[in-house]
Amino acid sequence: MTPTARLYDAPSEPPAPAQPGSPGPWRITFDTNPDDCNLHCIMCEDHSPYSATQPERRKAGRPKRRMRIDLIRRILDESKGAGLREIIPSTMGEPLLYRHFDEILDLCAAYGVKLNLTTNGTFPKRGAWAWAERIVPVASDVKVSWNGATKQTHQQVMLGSNWEDVLENVRVFIAVRDAHARSGGNRCRVTFQLTFMEVNAAELPAVVKLAAGMGVDRVKGHHLWVNFHQVRRQSMRRSHGAVARWNAIVEAAHEAAERHRLPDGRRVLLENIFKLEETARDDIAPGAVCPFLGQEAWVASDGRFNPCCAPDALRRTLGDFGNLNSVSLRDIWRSPQYKTLQATYARNALCQTCNMRRPVDA
């Protein structure tokens, strides 16, 4: 399972922001197979042992949510000439379990768009080497869910993961990536991606050191979405003391990035690792703008258009914008309802408390 519900990510080479009135998003996330996962991360809205999603689905006799590949084909074809540069396969579940993943890779090559992947590091079915040989040529960034610098912490958060196995998988993936780049091919970035929680926050500087030693280009993440009362005390935004601890950890993480360099001397890139104001308990970045509206799009497994990556039950409260099985993405993008959300989101309670905003100077 990926490290949280859904995670915002900056591209390998940050593009110019989409202009107002842009014909379409520069990046689309397809929720290809949110019900398929081989891990049970404690904070995951669908696969946590605290989540009722899967038991309720089975009890109701509902099939697993799996996107039809023809929907992805059609959206990519309709997006030609509209500024699309990247696609992300499901950030819920493990995308490498999607039966049509090879075709997604082929579609990226055919349409000239990059793949931005989040995986839990198990590289199921084929192993890290075989997957790397397929993924590296078309990827902009491969984010490996990583929730500790020690075996105990990582496995405590990502239930079902094996620390020694994922360490070796990352080493293998990076070896293939580097060999591909040396031969003149594409060099994708590799990222450790965390959910910042009480259980793992203190290990963040050590995660940075580990990344540098392994050749991992970037460490990023975001604060916990509290989907269950059982993880409420994991939030680093829950109290004055938690915020103060987090701020000290941020300082130590940046010092670690300065001290421990990548093999080529570069500094590990840190993203979304910034100090919080006391008001962050309610608003993580007062005055910050939404990084998604007018920029990116999400497509649910059933084709529903979503404006952002908030947990599903929450983002549904933002409105019903249409289903891409019957409405074109361009029509939704230009619709009065979507434009109204862009103009009014700052007054929306969900947007005001969103974990994904960040200070402009962070």
Main sheet? Answer: 9 strands, mixed
Number of strands: 11
Query: Assembly state here?
Result: single chain
The secondary-structure element order is EEHHEHEHEHEHEHEHEEEHHHH
Portion of residues in beta strands equals 5-15%
Radius of gyration over all CA atoms, rounded: 19 Å
Mean of all residue-level pLDDT scores: 90
Which percent bin holds the helix content? 25-40%
Silhouette: globular
Task: Give the neighbour order of strands across the main sheet.
Answer: 9-8-7-5-4-3-1-10-11
N- and C-termini, Cα separation: 27 Å
Stretches with pLDDT under 50, minimum 5 residues: 1-18
SS-derived structural category: alpha/beta
How many helix segments?
Answer: 12
Layout of secondary structure:
Blueprint: E1 27-30, E2 40-41, H1 53-60, H2 69-78, E3 86-89, H3 101-111, E4 114-119, H4 128-135, E5 139-145, H5 151-157, E6 158-159, H6 163-182, E7 189-196, H7 204-214, E8 218-223, H8 240-259, E9 269-271, E10 296-299, E11 305-306, H9 312-315, H10 329-333, H11 336-344, H12 349-352
Parallel strand pairs: 1-3, 1-10, 3-4, 4-5, 5-7, 7-8, 8-9
Antiparallel strand pairs: 2-6, 10-11
Features:
362 residues, nine-stranded mixed sheet, two-stranded antiparallel sheet, 12 helices, 32% helix, disordered N terminus
Provide a descriptive summary of the structure in words:
The strands form two sheets. Strands 9-8-7-5-4-3-1-10-11 form a nine-stranded mixed beta sheet, covered by helices on one side. It has a two-stranded antiparallel ribbon with strand order 2-6. With 362 residues, it is of the alpha/beta class. It is 32% helix and 13% strand. Helix 4 links the parallel strand 4 and strand 5 (139-145). Helix 2 runs parallel beside helix 3 and helix 7 (204-214) packs parallel to helix 8. The model is unreliable at 1-18 (pLDDT under 50).
